[in-house]
Amino acid sequence: MSGACNKVAIPSGTSGVHLVSFRYHLGFLGGGQLARMSIMSAQRMGLRCLSLDPAADSPASQIANSVPGDLTDSDKVAEIFRQCEFITLENEFIPSEIITSAMKEAGRDESCLTPGAPTLGMIQDKLVQRECYERAGVPSPRAVEAHLGSEMLGFPHVLKARFGGYDGKGTRTVKTQAGSDALRETWESAPWLAEGFVPFQRELAVMVCRSRTETWCFPTMETVQTNHVCDLVFPSGIDASEVALRAVEAVQGFGLFGVELFETATGEIIVNEIAPRPHNSGHFSLDWGGVSQFEQHVRLTLGLPLSRIVGQECCMANLLGIGEPGSFEQGIRAAVDSVPHCQVHWYGKSEAKVGRKVGHINVAGRDCVALAQRARNAFWEGFRLG
Ligand SMILES: Nc1ncnc2c1ncn2[C@@H]1O[C@H](COP(=O)(O)OP(=O)(O)O)[C@@H](O)[C@H]1O
Ligand SMILES: [Mg+2]
């Protein structure tokens, strides 16, 4: 399996790791599992890493140095800019203005940050993101401010928080005027948008790696969400990288991007949203035998050349917290008894709330979709027994 539709340019120059007066090569704004898995890749390359996260025992802080602090605290963000040569994000929620002012306070310029603050600003407001797609002619649902939804879009339509939504927490489908009215308080008390409902056949995702000199895409994956949370990711058999790349270009994005897409019954590919960072739909790449999304992310942030993207078919099943105590050890034992070549990842979260992403299982090779689900079922059975 290889990432199709790659646009190649010859890397120019040799930017990369060099000795400067920073204590750390790489800083992460956020210390969850995405930062942790990126740090694991960075450490393989001998890089020293630092993360900022409000939780004292965040997944990233367990494996590298960290600064405890609020992600919207400009002084704390500035500290990361002072201590690290290159900086990246693990979520899109820190207001871009805070990042820009912290960067200035630390005496740094835009070149140390991937993705850049302007791109982040375009992505973190979902209405502005949609407007970027519309201007660039990238297929995407029409979106308006929430109060105009009923009149301009009719029913059904989808209401979404413009800022800060994740795992479906800021997304509601309304079928009637009464349904919209029932949510009025929600969409009037904060900025929300309304957008056209897409009767999609399936959801897809493409990880796009775009530097100033090279662009590569991971294979197009199908993603299955349960209760709005991604549950299963596997090869889709089609190539949606062209539309995904156009979406990244529409927000002038450089770095690693997870592009979520809809495929309609007629095969049309429509952009849902972009995440400017590693993405759940790319976790398969940890165990597919080729370069991982995390390694590409680190290379993009440091300006290192990218790897060509080739690997085996691989399926990822998310481990979503079940809200019950249990034993990881018994879980992994049961998973491996059931599917000996499965790879179990556990994020070391201090709390495993119901539905929260606490780990994932990858299975590469033949029958990977059925086997990943089998391994996951076995994992939870074992976990509960422990
Ligand atoms: N316009 C839409 N039409 C139909 N379903 C949608 C639409 N927008 C979102 N959804 C559904 O809701 C899920 C969550 O919405 P999304 O915009 O991706 O927000 P989040 O930031 O929570 O991932 C999507 O994965 C998809 O299943
Ligand atoms: Mg989404």
Gap from first CA to last CA: 37 Å
User: What's the CATH architecture name of the largest domain?
Assistant: 2-Layer Sandwich
Approximate shape: globular
| SSE succession | EHEEHEHEHHEHEEHHEEEEEHEEHEHEEH
Question: What's the number of domains?
Answer: 3
Tell me the total number of β-strands.
Answer: 18
How many helical stretches? 12
Provide the β-strand percentage band. Answer: 25-35%
What portion of residues is helical?
A: 25-40%
What is the CATH first-level class name of the largest domain? Answer: Alpha Beta
How would you characterize the overall build of this protein?
This protein is an alpha+beta fold. The protein folds into three domains: 24-123, 3-Layer(aba) Sandwich (Rossmann fold), CATH 3.40.50.20; 142-196, Dna Ligase, domain 1, CATH 3.30.1490; 200-385, 2-Layer Sandwich (D-amino Acid Aminotransferase, Chain A, domain 1). It has helices at 33-44, 74-83, 96-105, 117-124, 126-136, 149-153, 177-182, 184-189, 241-250, 293-302, 328-338, 368-385; strands at 24-29, 49-53, 65-68, 84-89, 113-114, 143-145, 157-161, 171-174, 192-196, 200-210, 215-217, 221-226, 229-235, 255-264, 269-275, 314-320, 343-346, 357-364. Strands 10, 11, 12, 13, 14, 15, 16, 17 and 18 form a nine-stranded antiparallel beta sheet that branches. A five-stranded parallel beta sheet has the order 3-2-1-4-5, sandwiched between helices. It has a four-stranded antiparallel beta sheet with strand order 6-9-7-8. The longest helix has 18 residues, at 368-385. The protein is globular. Bound molecules: adenosine-5'-diphosphate and magnesium ion. Magnesium ion (MG) binds at residues 260, 273.
